[in-house]
Amino acid sequence: MTWQPMAETRPKEQEVVLRRRLAVRCALLLVLSGPVGFAAGMLMNINGRVVNGTWMAAAVFVMMAVTLWVALRREQRRAVHLGVTLSRYVDLGRLVRRGDPPVQPEVRPAVLEILERQRALWERMTSKGQSRLRIGLIALFILITAVNLLDRQYALALFFSFALLSWLSLPLSLRRQRKRLEAAQGKLARNP
User: DSSP secondary-structure letter at 22?
Assistant: First the structure.
């Protein structure tokens, strides 16, 4: 079977492709949670024992599996309420986040609901309370990184430096997300 763009495939084939994509993403997330948990356990480990990394890997894997199950159940209920499949609903969310929502009438209610939810999330993330929390966490991570450097705990300092960079990059990603949401709203407004 040759590869065809999503727009040219039939709806049944398109649903199979979307279902496979969702399954692969979920499996990849679960598979990667183990090594990430192990690495975090080893970095946080003072004694250098592999057992602590293994326990952390298991804990992160279980937390990720439960979180993924809860999120997929919630999304499934929303999808059923809007008359689309779970895989299609997740794909619509991805397209809205990219700023390129489909304008077909059969998925328009789902797209509008996803767009509204993402707009509300963006507004919560840019509120004054969130900004203050972000500044506080940045200051805390700077302090923790400096203390770990002074204690010659370079692995922990590297770990907290990564967390610091993640929090510092958040305003840039929020700005990019706002532009994409505006592009999605503009596309939907042009195609009523």
Answer: H
